[in-house]
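Hey, weird one. I pasted the Glycoside hydrolase, family 19 sequence into the form twice and got a warning about non-standard characters only the second time. First submission, copied straight from the form history:
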Amino acid sequence: MITAELLQRLGYRNMPLAVAQAWAAALNAAATRYQINTPLRLSHWLAQILHESGGLYYTKEVWGPTPAQRGYEGRANLGNTQPGDGKRYMGRGPIQVTGRANYRSAGQRLGLDLEGTPELAERPDIGALIAGDYWNSRGLNSRADAGGETMVETISAAVNGRNKDTGLPNHLPERLARFRQVWAVLGALPVQRFTLVDPGGKQAPWNGRDNPYNGVTLGPELLAALDLAYPVAGGPWAYGRLKVWRRRDNTFVLERLP
């Protein structure tokens, strides 16, 4: 789970608590929605976000315009077809979504008019959803599951492309340093293997405590029992007074039965 204290530690210097709290809530909501729900997935995702946004300081690209930014204008691969599109659809949000076409496609998936109102991407709640959607649309959970530092190059290339001269992802050393920084904290946490569903259908990650949940105690013993009973992805199954699913990432979804 991403906390305000974690973001104050890893984000930009002297991040105000209110800012950290807003981003923590937004990022956790997006992480839940897109199943970025293990320390490894969170570490890769958060490392890329922190790099792209300068530790969550820049929710909007600093505009010069630089020569590279002037090159946004008229770029077909960004969908910038109208005069002024380069600046209007500058990088925004923690993943720095850029270009009319990318705003449009993200907005369509999220049910938001990002093409008509690109400034929405600067809001923590919407910017975090865009970052989660971007991650999900490129299948990066599965790449994160494949490893730690060894996957930083592949994930970085998917997020920001490769340098045409070197063939390496842009700013790879900095991205690797960010991953090491986040992983040093999140990698020490217990793997979040349970997602809980309340009666209204809302999902939330387990808080890591051995709490009773509809007649069973969440914790290592339950996890071992579920691993034994349901070794492959599928469901739902009834386990006591719970409905149980096993995801492909080996996490379990638990819903209370009446």
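That's the output from the first submission. The warning seems to come from a hidden character in my clipboard, not from the data itself. The longest strand covers residues 234-239.
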